[in-house]
Amino acid sequence: MPYDVVTFGEAMIRLSPPNFRRLEQARSLDVQVGGAELNTAVGLARLGRSSAWVSRLTNNPLGRLIANHAREAGVSTEHMIWTSDDRVGLYFLEFGATPRASSVLYDRKNAAIASVRPGMIPWAAICAGTKWFHVTGITPGLSASAAATTKEALQTAKEAGVQTSVDLNYRAKLWSQTDAGRCMQELMPWCDVLITTEEDLERVFGIHGKSYDEAAERAAHRFKLKIVAITVRDNPLVWRNRWTAIAWRDGQVLRTREYELEIVDRLGAGDSFAAGLIHGLLDGDLQKGLDWGVAASALKHTIPGDFNWVTPDEVQAVLKGGELRISR
Amino acid sequence: MPYDVVTFGEAMIRLSPPNFRRLEQARSLDVQVGGAELNTAVGLARLGRSSAWVSRLTNNPLGRLIANHAREAGVSTEHMIWTSDDRVGLYFLEFGATPRASSVLYDRKNAAIASVRPGMIPWAAICAGTKWFHVTGITPGLSASAAATTKEALQTAKEAGVQTSVDLNYRAKLWSQTDAGRCMQELMPWCDVLITTEEDLERVFGIHGKSYDEAAERAAHRFKLKIVAITVRDNPLVWRNRWTAIAWRDGQVLRTREYELEIVDRLGAGDSFAAGLIHGLLDGDLQKGLDWGVAASALKHTIPGDFNWVTPDEVQAVLKGGELRISR
Amino acid sequence: MPYDVVTFGEAMIRLSPPNFRRLEQARSLDVQVGGAELNTAVGLARLGRSSAWVSRLTNNPLGRLIANHAREAGVSTEHMIWTSDDRVGLYFLEFGATPRASSVLYDRKNAAIASVRPGMIPWAAICAGTKWFHVTGITPGLSASAAATTKEALQTAKEAGVQTSVDLNYRAKLWSQTDAGRCMQELMPWCDVLITTEEDLERVFGIHGKSYDEAAERAAHRFKLKIVAITVRDNPLVWRNRWTAIAWRDGQVLRTREYELEIVDRLGAGDSFAAGLIHGLLDGDLQKGLDWGVAASALKHTIPGDFNWVTPDEVQAVLKGGELRISR
Amino acid sequence: MPYDVVTFGEAMIRLSPPNFRRLEQARSLDVQVGGAELNTAVGLARLGRSSAWVSRLTNNPLGRLIANHAREAGVSTEHMIWTSDDRVGLYFLEFGATPRASSVLYDRKNAAIASVRPGMIPWAAICAGTKWFHVTGITPGLSASAAATTKEALQTAKEAGVQTSVDLNYRAKLWSQTDAGRCMQELMPWCDVLITTEEDLERVFGIHGKSYDEAAERAAHRFKLKIVAITVRDNPLVWRNRWTAIAWRDGQVLRTREYELEIVDRLGAGDSFAAGLIHGLLDGDLQKGLDWGVAASALKHTIPGDFNWVTPDEVQAVLKGGELRISR
Amino acid sequence: MPYDVVTFGEAMIRLSPPNFRRLEQARSLDVQVGGAELNTAVGLARLGRSSAWVSRLTNNPLGRLIANHAREAGVSTEHMIWTSDDRVGLYFLEFGATPRASSVLYDRKNAAIASVRPGMIPWAAICAGTKWFHVTGITPGLSASAAATTKEALQTAKEAGVQTSVDLNYRAKLWSQTDAGRCMQELMPWCDVLITTEEDLERVFGIHGKSYDEAAERAAHRFKLKIVAITVRDNPLVWRNRWTAIAWRDGQVLRTREYELEIVDRLGAGDSFAAGLIHGLLDGDLQKGLDWGVAASALKHTIPGDFNWVTPDEVQAVLKGGELRISR
Amino acid sequence: MPYDVVTFGEAMIRLSPPNFRRLEQARSLDVQVGGAELNTAVGLARLGRSSAWVSRLTNNPLGRLIANHAREAGVSTEHMIWTSDDRVGLYFLEFGATPRASSVLYDRKNAAIASVRPGMIPWAAICAGTKWFHVTGITPGLSASAAATTKEALQTAKEAGVQTSVDLNYRAKLWSQTDAGRCMQELMPWCDVLITTEEDLERVFGIHGKSYDEAAERAAHRFKLKIVAITVRDNPLVWRNRWTAIAWRDGQVLRTREYELEIVDRLGAGDSFAAGLIHGLLDGDLQKGLDWGVAASALKHTIPGDFNWVTPDEVQAVLKGGELRISR
User: Fewer CB near the last or first residue (10 Å), C or N of chain F?
Assistant: First the structure.
């Protein structure tokens, strides 16, 4: 079945101690599922788009739990590569509070997705009829074969006429800036839309500018990108941030509202921005994408877990300048 | 047994997902009991007044749970009308965070109270010896027969020399502004004290003014009310508000302190204001009522559930300008 | 997309106090989703069959939660009829212990499914390519229009060459034995396989025999059924039962192993028997159906919630006479 | 207000680790309220009798919590002696499993009730119109002044024509068998009904017999008691017991059914037997008292906490030989 | 085994209702262990110092739980005085929110430590090889014999060449300002480093100044102290504070950074400041002590419970001006 | 510091869904720590013996959590080898119920202990003064270098005059029976006491007999062992077992009582038997070791987690034939 959007990458089981306990204090761990590309697929499904997430998972209770959660949130797992080898990646999340940042302890080595390799996934069949393909810089950072498979996917998608987006998503715990830069640059020819932060542009591509606008423009020019979107976070405190984004296209910069946030869980916020952006672009409307991307991801900050359990009505209400009183 | 205060209305079982989860994410629901008039009866019991709450409940575990909670908080349920018919009302509460408001999903149709009708409750006996009767605009909004019973109650109370108060409490999910306006206006002749917000005055009676004071005065004049109290909330964020109230009597407006609030749960705040106000008025002291009403309801914002589990000592400590250090 | 099995009926949100608390003691409620026909669809999906569940749900967070849980467990909800009317059914479950039985408090009146009516669901399209259709006596018991829709569904299925099964599932809280008998008897002409208990045969059809075998045979003869399966529970205690089933076909009675059970949650056990039975019959093997039905449902008793979260490997291990030691 | 039954004694906050954790493993403690005489008052309220519990409590959140729970369960606390002195008693309960018994760690020294003394409680006023007064051997075991107050209460009750019952309830952690024997014997002249176990008769009074019947008769003869009731527990395992009781009156021994029990929480079982017994005796029917006492307390074993959250309907269903299937 | 630091005092089991519930609403209580001197010993162990905590505990599950938690956090309990007498102290903690302060209800009377007396603890042996001894004003406030034992300990330590620190820690619920002043003044001759707040200097010693600096200097001069450290808290709200400290030595005042805090749990913050201060002073570096004391205790505010579960790396990261983004 | 007993092996973080949920249903996981040799060290510490556990752990929050738990339970971690490499092993535990066995999903590959190699641990220093060394067949099964290190440890211990015990503990998920047999046989020359089950004797060494006695004797003869102990479990159900053990020495077989068990958590039962056995043998009393081993491990079955949180008094009470009534 063709989908509006297909994404490709790892998802892990996320384990976090409740009530601000530190990991050393944990006597129970809350279970969520998260992974950048899955999060974006969920964000799109929740906005009403059909989406599928492609990955490789070990067929044990942990792997099935991940696929179950994807389906629960409306994402198809029909293209999953199941294996009896390898393991399921985990990450441990500790919530901080000013002056202590939240922190993440990855335990993702030897996960099944790291052994994915070109030829393993039937990209041509998956891309047939699909409108959009999305991936982030995490997937190629997992292993050399995952990087090759990412390239294979992007090439196949572009050749099939699918639009593509890449979120840089640099992870220092996965690879060096140099390695990331070399690899990501090779993917850019098959990328229509680049999504990133100012910081990641600097770290991965060494691109910076006097403003977000200039940084976006430089990236667009260097890699001949159609669109560059940059999310902007102001975080004077752990639990109170301000959040917006800009988007560059054809020398023009589009803006949208900035949101004051009382944060519940900021994991997956960038991924839900990508979902909103793609949602608008599927309608051929970049301003809508920027508006929906920022509004949807502003809402994501208020929701536990990596997934953005919003509805289109709720995003629209925020876009209209929603009321903070209880509706009754 | 005669009571200082009798209130009349619905209480529901309140179900809310813990830890800011959305309802779709809920794997457990916290159970509380709430209802505007019960909340006010609880607020009065906690301030040392004897109070009874009159309602109609289905005699099953859910109905008994509601009555149990009322008694636990010090409120008499001896005048409860028990029935084996109908069902127990529920409401689902989802806590939000900026920019997402908290929201309420009512599932209260066909609750036992909606079938209450004139003649079912022995108002004359209940009013004998009682000092104060309180009801809100929710009760008449439940059904035509509940509206008729509310009118019957207010009339019987007034004729028995009981003082009366009405909190407008407009609920758009129950009835239209037009219907509410028509019905509430019919109740005003038997109302001594009107409690409301500026917004509800506008929505129900189409009354507004250049200031809270003017709005209160207009309402007082139109309905020949002795006292009109208006609560004032400033909510730039979901979890940080400012809170105060004014009270109009005989052309004069009384004021009290404004409180900065770190909110834990704002449900029932207005109802606990009513409790404090009535508490003062039972002593014949409107300024005390305003002071205690705002201080008690400021404290309510810091307490989970709809009930205001404070003590008179705690209200007095806040009135004296309490210290935020831990007392030890 | 055609499915191996389609089922039709109500699912409710199930709310149960943890740790054997009574409802009056509940301060939190565990959330599960359950409904006889959904449970069977889940059971089939877990055994590897493609299945879809057809129902009508109110499009609010509670309705979406039900559909999410169905998809999480592998069941398609693509044929769901979404509405903005009516409400979502609930049931409250209290776990007992000898000498107190577990008990259920339904709050399902006015649920969206009760308003389903013929013509609302595109049965012909749904049946195209489908191999099996399953429904229980609960669905027609919900309302007259639901009964008519059930009949419409069975007729359409039979005419489309789909095999059908009906689980009698008598619910005294829904309708009288007389009403149930009259209605269910009208459905029998379109039923291939009847699944029931000896007790329900007696209550609904007034059929009894000196043995399970005789009762099955009488039912088969009266309604010209191909197969009659009867589950047999021996429950001297609430948390320790013995469990098996028999199946009649063409005058012959098939048997399978009896299981000793340490029960964790017996809700949905009969529905998971139906799933296993249909699983075998889809392979044309009644003995396999009986074996898998009883083994799968024996396992169901050890799993919290209404859904049978087993794998085919686990059912096979039990069928081979599984070991109770921890495998490591 | 006169009550059917008044009881007098201590209640404590009960703290128990969930999920069979040992106290050293506890990271949270479940909170319940319990105390022999309060438990009996609750048992009577739940069976439909009006009951009040008299005690002395420190007026802090812990003391109020105890009174709140009493009222929640339907027991009046209007005769509570509130004090700002002393402390609130606690007990820590650890659930065992064969071969480890459940165990109790008391932290009840210096609780407010231990300082109760004659003259502090207006017994004459309380007894006016009351039908029954109940106390156990725990109250006099708390302190010499509590023992004197118990005697004062029993005397006043008897002189006011109130019927009285005493449950021996020997607590080795409170006092020696010798001290208990001397004290309890002094109370017997004012006792109509003695409730106990064979073991306590031996420990407190040195009374034993070749059978329960003989032991009961010897106690009745020694103290000239109208009725002696003995509960009988067979506990080969921690979580599976058998339970019944006998009652001696005028040389005759009455019996009732023995119950097989799957235990959830056996604390308060004896106290709920006393409630059922008194319930029957208030109707002048000892056989009813014995039947209801054993049936109600059999149900108590299946309910968490010390209180017996049953309904009269449920007791009657068990008396009729209730079904263990789920009623639906 | 000699330790870097030995501390002496009481630790209690801390019981707090979760999720901002009031004690009257508590149905479960979270269990932590806390006590000023134990908290400081934990703070030191977590910074890499060997530390032992000396106390007297009842040998029951609650007493063992306290010792277990001390060892879990890296503190030696080898010098514990175990007894079968007395009881284990408890304290109940209720988390507030503006305008309601958090509050503490102590239930510590008759704890084993209150019966400690001179000669009971082998101070000379404990001090041999130890570098630092720390105690607070809580220990002498527990009882006269505890005060005498505190004096004995300080004297023995000083005579053995151990450096000493005293945190004033005035507890109004334990003793009057006059009693505290008289007692603490007697301890000053054996104190090298005084740790306190401006408020406690005033309450215990009647010392105040126009500035923190002046107050510190006056205290230093009056008691001939080497070092006086004062912590400074600005708390306009319950959950948002600013936090720093100063240290006076030889007429000079040292300062360090002020931290903005999002508070999770402020109990034990002062104790963790003492740990950081001593940590620096063991290196002979007061500025390091002040820097580490304030940074470590700033982090403590973000951690549930009384213990400061940080690592030296985390303190250093904050000292370097840590980033609030999630590190990944 | 010399210890009574030193053990060597892996401990993992154990994650299990609460309330019998399956892993796929888990929304939270309970955290415990377990590992055969650590469990035995804990068992000995709880019986009053000084014990240390030697292992290799990654120095992150998860590794520290494991060491913290060891110390909490009284076990020294001073000989821990900390590393910044590798990862911390995990295992997921799912509790079953008849007819579904509990199951374990290991995620222990690449844990720090697997990279331990000869020369890394200062065995000679550790063994100096130590009385007993214990290891199980899991440690050599982790990797070739771990096997070599195990051999190094046993040899060093024997040469230092330390008594040694080995628990066969065959884990099919770690290695084949052939590999285990070859490796374990090489360790036998340095083993004084072999602890095992009949099943493991067969699987690892191919030894079986007509009785437990004969199997023990054959093992003793083949490897010239002083003592062979065999634990015997009868498990007709998952939650009800019978449990005992025998011990062979010098041609004689000692026996002890068999216990009826209501199981709460059987993980670590065998390890706690080893602890009790060694406890007796440290007193030179094999019968005591057998009695204490079986009694202590019978109690272990009633305690959540892998650790045996008993006291010597509790073991003695069971040995004397403890009462199942609540002691009060």
Answer: N
D103 touches chain F (CB under 8 A): yes
Take residue D216 and report the two structure tokens written for it. Answer: 């009961």
CB contact C65 to B (< 8 Å): yes
Catalytic residue among C271, C285, C291, C306: C271
Q: In this structure, are residues A265 and A228 in contact, taking their beta carbons and an 8 Å threshold?
A: no
Pairing of strands E90-94, E103-107: antiparallel
CB-CB under 8 Å, C298 with F235? no
User: What span, in angstroms and rounded, lies between the C-alpha atoms of B233 and E236?
Assistant: 20
Q: In a mutagenesis test of the A interface, which of B19, B98, B169, B198 is the best target, namely the one with the most A β-carbons within 10 Å?
A: B98
Tell me if F9 sits within 8 A of F52, measured CB to CB. no
What is the ipTM metric for this complex? 0.96
CA distance B281 to B292: 10
Phi/psi at E100 (nearest 5 deg)? -110, 120
Which of D68, D262, D309 has the highest number of chain C CBs within 10 A, making it the mutation to test binding with C? D262
The whole-angstrom separation of Cα A187 and Cα A223 is 10
Decide if pLDDT at A94 tops 90: yes
Tens-digit pLDDT profile for residues A9-62: 999 999 999 999 999 999 999 999 999 999 999 999 999 999 999 999 999 999
| Residues of F involved in catalysis | 271
Q: Residue B43 pLDDT more than 90?
A: yes
Q: Is A298 on the interface with B (CB under 8 A)?
A: yes
β-pair partners for E197: E231
Two structure tokens written together for A266: 């900021």
For B247, the token pair is: 């009270």
CA distance F136 to F272: 13
Three-state secondary structure of D246-280 = EEEECCEEEECCCEEEECCCCCCHHHHHHHHHHHH
Q: Could you give the 3-state DSSP secondary structure of residue A226?
A: coil
Residue F238 in contact with partner chain C when CB distance is under 8 A? yes
Task: For residue B38, give both structure tokens.
Answer: 């019960």
* Interface membership of E284 toward B (CB under 8 Å): no
3-state SS string over E253-316?
A: EEECCCEEEECCCCCCHHHHHHHHHHHHHHCCCHHHHHHHHHHHHHHHCCCCCCCCCCCHHHHH
Domains of chain C: 9-76+83-115 (3.40.1190.30)
Of A20, A24, A235, the CB nearest to E324: A235
**Closest to E18 in 3D by CA, of E32, E2, E5:** E32
Where does chain F show beta strands of DSSP type E? 5-8, 12-16, 28-34, 51-54, 56-58, 81-83, 90-94, 103-107, 132-136, 163-167, 193-197, 227-234, 240-249, 252-255, 259-262
β-bridge mates for residue F94, sequence order: F103
Active site residues of D: 271
Quote the Cα angle for A269-A271-A274, to 5°: 115
Encoding tokens for residue F108? 């222990």
Distance from the Cα of E246 to chain A's closest Cα (Å) equals: 19
The whole-number average pLDDT for the span F5-33 is 98
Comparing alpha-carbon positions, the chain B residue that sits nearest to E23 is B309
Closest chain A C-alpha to C58 CA, distance in angstroms: 15
CA distances from F202 to F139, F166, F259 (A): 19, 16, 25
- Residue position matching structure tokens 């779709």: B24
Q: Is the pLDDT of residue E325 over 90?
A: no
Q: Which two tokens stand for residue E70?
A: 């001390």
Question: Is residue A211 a contact partner of residue A217, using CB atoms and an 8 Å limit?
Answer: no
- CA of A61: which chain C residue's CA is closest? C311
Partners of D262 on chain C (C-beta within 8 Å) are 97-98, 237-239
Find, in chain C, the residue whose alpha carbon is nearest to that of A73.
Answer: C68
